[in-house]
Fold this sequence. Notes:
Blueprint: E1 14-19, H1 23-28, E2 36-40, H2 50-63, E3 70-74, H3 83-93, E4 97-100, H4 106-118, E5 126-131, H5 134-138, H6 140-145, E6 154-159, H7 161-168, H8 180-192, E7 196-199, H9 208-221, E8 225-228, H10 234-241, H11 245-259, E9 268-271, E10 274-277, H12 278-299
Helix pairs in contact: 9-10, 11-12
Bound molecules: ligand LIB3CWND and magnesium ion.
Pfam families: HpcH_HpaI (PF03328)
Keywords: Lyase, Magnesium, Metal-binding
InterPro entries: Aldolase/citrate-lyase_domain (IPR005000), Citramalyl-CoA_lyase (IPR040186), Citrate_lyase_beta/mcl1/mcl2 (IPR011206), Pyrv/PenolPyrv_kinase-like_dom (IPR015813), Pyrv_kinase-like_dom_sf (IPR040442)
Amino acid sequence: MSIAMPSPIRVRRSALSVPAINRRALEKVHSLDCDAVIFDLEDSVAPEKKGQARDNLRQFFRETPLRDCEAIIRINALSSEFGLEDLDLVVSLKPDALLLPKVSRARDLQDAQAALDQKGAPPSVRLWAMMETAEGVMNATSIAASRHQAADRLDCLVLGLNDLRKETRVPPRPGRVYLVPWMMQVVLAARAYGLDVIDSVFNDFRDTDTFMLECQQGREMGFDGKMLIHPAQIEPANQTFGPSDQEIADAEAIVSAFNEPQAAELNVINIEGRMVERLHLEQATRLLAQVHFIQQRKTNP
Length: 301
Ligand SMILES: CC(C)(COP(=O)(O)OP(=O)(O)OC[C@H]1O[C@@H](n2cnc3c(N)ncnc32)[C@H](O)[C@@H]1OP(=O)(O)O)[C@@H](O)C(=O)NCCC(=O)NCCSC(=O)C[C@H](O)C(=O)O
Ligand SMILES: [Mg+2]
């Protein structure tokens, strides 16, 4: 017996932030192997440069749109003086998602969704939410739940620890030790409502060893991937958040064991002394679909 591939399969191991004001960085993105590019109009763009940054994105989307990589635009808060013009840009460029910064309550997302709907953005334009305020983390459950209410475009939560540290005054420490409970709260809320969740940026982009440790920690906490600030972080993030050879071999063994005729009516089987249930078959099938997705991308560069 075989089971259908879950759909849609998405892979979000690496989401590179690119300041929309930086033309040189924009030119580079086509040569980079990240799963998503977040074109930033918010904190990496000075107030007097917002217009120029929007023009850069207009030119980029017109001349060299991304292929096989999600395109996300992070706008300024809708309540800011830049928010509405950013939103109009999103409606005209139709990226894969709008990333809303500093989401503190479900209402922020509902307002963004209402504005997208009212301006005629197609349903393909999803919503991503930055979780980076104390209030946002405390409201993680209702924010994630808004996917089933007035913000059904919501697709993914992105943790922002720079802002969260600033507001809570928790200093950076090895292992992000005092932040872990809040991070897990965001992961749990995302999973309860079927959302993806992406770990925060790591600022010291030349410190590859600590970055790798942070990626491994993020993966073990259940994150799908990491928001990145520098091209050098892409490969380590793809490696850490992608399926390992051992995980692929295990998944193949599970699928093939359940495909045996004698397993057709069994919900639980024994694979080399390990209990394996159909829920593991679902996990294995999802993992193999992700492997397929990644391989296809490699063969269509
Ligand atoms: C941090 C940087 C300013 C460093 O840039 P630079 O000094 O140019 O570094 P390098 O000389 O090592 O760069 C080597 C080449 O790589 C290109 N580059 C660098 N960064 C990027 C990038 N993000 N995307 C594409 N290309 C990039 C350089 O142009 C060099 O190219 P070349 O000259 O051809 O060799 C810079 O990395 C940077 O600006 N990073 C992104 C900053 C950003 O987006 N900030 C916002 C996101 S952070 C966030 O969201 C925090 C969150 O909200 C929270 O609260 O936690
Ligand atoms: Mg931030």
